[in-house]
Amino acid sequence: MSENQQPDQGRRQFLGQSAKAAASLALAPGVMLYGVTPANATTDSGASSANRWGLLIDTSKCANGCDACVTACQQENGWGDHGQTKQSSPAQIEQWIRKVDLRNNSTGASHSLPLMCQHCEHPPCVDVCPTGASMKRADGIVLVDKHICIGCRYCMMACPYKARSFVHEALYGQREHAPRGKGTVESCTLCVHKVDAGDGTTACADACSAAGHKAILFGDLKDPNSEISRTVATYNTTALRDDLDLNPGVRYRGI
Amino acid sequence: MSQPRFSQIPAGAGFYAWIILLAGFIAAALGAVYYMEHSGHWVTGMSNQVIWGTPHLFAIFLIVAASGALNVASIASVFNKTMYKPLAPLSAILAVALLIGGLVVLVLDLGRPDRLIVAMTHFNFKSIFTWNIFLYSGFAAIVLIYLWTMLEKRMNRYSQRAGLVAFLWRLILTTGTGSIFGFLVAREGYDAALLAPMFVILSFAWGLAVYMLVLMISCRIHDRELGNLVILRLRSLLAIFVAATLYFSLVYHVTNLYATEHHSFEAFVLRDGGVYTAMFWLGQIVLGTLLPLGLLFHPSTQRVPLWIATAAGLVIVGAFATLYVIIIGGQSFPIDIFTGYTVSSSFDDGIIADYAPSLPELILGIGGVAIGLMLVSISMAALRLLPESLSDEVMQPLVAKEVVAD
After folding, report:
1. Predicted ipTM?
2. CA–CA separation, B234 vs B226, rounded Å?
């Protein structure tokens, strides 16, 4: 997709089906072209409220200066520069995930951590969105429907984590599984395409493990046997801006 | 003369020149919109921290002033002050015109203005923006009906009731506008229920200031006498409203100053904020409040129309300064995500964000004002909105009626 526009789902599905049909005719029976299978093939039933996907970030393991999670997210979801000369100023460029360095004002202790959409149970962005483009899935993943986002940016005003970005210029080199659009708002999708494909992980968590830190743990907070559930049940973890009672799906250890 | 007579303003060469001038501003605004939408918002001063910029200053000023402009009509019909009755039709049309100008700016600053139809067909009723879609369109409809009851003799008997509905609606409308900010828990400068009534009071002052200027300039241009009875009444009203805005501003900041958690935000606005501190003290307080109050109360200026008009103009200057501090300043101040920590990142965490209005944003905002003025001007030429005379002789019997009624 070279421009900022995304085709609507109906057309996309139609094209997908047509491609499948054409491929079936052209190739020997039983042979399918790679890539025509929908990304959510494993979960056709859709998101379920039996799950609550989330992240646990251990700041004691997060390395200062390491941004493997950020780079991996950019690669996976196609944001950032990717060779495209950006016209936006640094303050205008989108950031789905960012590294934040903290120093405790009283003790001087330093921490480094990744910050992204916190996938709140009660997301203020969803409350304020006039069209319902900001939405929360049954499994707790907060997303923006790029097809009905009008770019009013009210969600960005409402997000207490500054987790959302506005696309300030035309886009190139988009990923098929991560539709984006100039003039709309976007944020971390919790790698929803991977979740729906049953991968059981996110790009940032994978990258953090690969870098040897294992500071980001992805999992189902509603599954009592998941590692994330067992960890949050055992250790003290923190929700950012806990005073707002938003019950985010992303929790932190060590701050 | 028992009843003031109304007539259209003449549509001569001067009128057409004025309309063409306004059309030029509107065309420039549309060009700016095309440029911003085609390029993307990177050509504006906005960013991921300051996400509502100069167009929002104009849009919110126009929308807030719109509800305030209706006050003059409300005083006539709701509070039955007969002296205001001849002033009411202009007040109603000004309210609708300013609202439309503001809404056009708001819509054209969207990331996807082409999706306006989406906003009109997909509603999330928990969103204050959604409430506002209904409040704004309802306001325009109600005020136009109200105007009809005033202009059409057979409908006159419904005028008071229509005026009451319009008055209540406008109170809710401005509460809704203030609540856009008041309900935002995320940012330090907002999240205060006080913002809703404060916006109502601001609308009283700003709307009246715009109304007074439009009335005084129209009467001057079209040789319609405007006597001291009217001017001095409006002057007193403006003085009270401006004083009330000062009171609300005082309560807002003193409340913040009392709570330690807000000290850093208050220090930012009141002392260390550079352009925002200057906007607050020089723009909002000195130019927008103290100077107008001085002009409206000082014995040597308080009865001079030119000084009263100057005061009204200063109130509008102060309005933009106030909105700059609230909207831009409120966003520039960093969001406190990690209380008790000093933070830094590549995403402007922990620092005051830069914002400078860009030319396209300014042109779009000015275009909104031009749309409002054009609608008012054309309405005044097409409808009998402006009394032929508001001289003291014409107004005296109406004032006498009020005394009897009281």
Report:
1. 0.93
2. 12
Other beta carbons less than 10 A from residue B300's beta carbon: 8
Q: Nearest residue on chain B to A242, judged by CA atoms? A: B337
pLDDT, tens only, B314-337: 999 999 999 999 999 999 999 999
Q: Give dist(CA A191, CA A180) in Å, integer.
A: 14
CA distance to A116, A117, A150, B71, B201, per residue, from B99 (Å): 38, 35, 21, 14, 17
Which residues in B lie closer than 8 A to residue A182 (C-beta atoms)? 40, 111
User: A148: which chain B residues are within 8 Å (Cβ-Cβ)?
Assistant: 115, 118, 122
B335 vs A contacts (CB less than 8 Å): 160-162
Architecture of the structural domain at B6-405: Up-down Bundle (1.20)
Tens digit of each residue's pLDDT (9 = 90 or more) over B352-401 = 999 999 999 999 999 999 999 999 999 999 999 999 999 999 999 998 88
Ordered by start, the domain boundaries in chain B are: 6-405
Buried b (16+ CB within 10 A) or exposed e, B29-38: beebbeebbe
Helix-strand-coil percent breakdown of chain A, rounded to 5?
25, 15, 60
Among candidate residues A151, A182, A163, A187, the one with its CA nearest the CA of residue A88: A182
pTM for this predicted structure: 0.91
Question: A132 and chain B: CB distance < 8 Å anywhere?
Answer: yes
Count chain A–chain B contacts defined by CB atoms under 8 A: 178
The minimal CB distance from A128 to the residues B49, B127, B338 is found for: B127
Q: State which amino acid sits at residue B360.
A: P
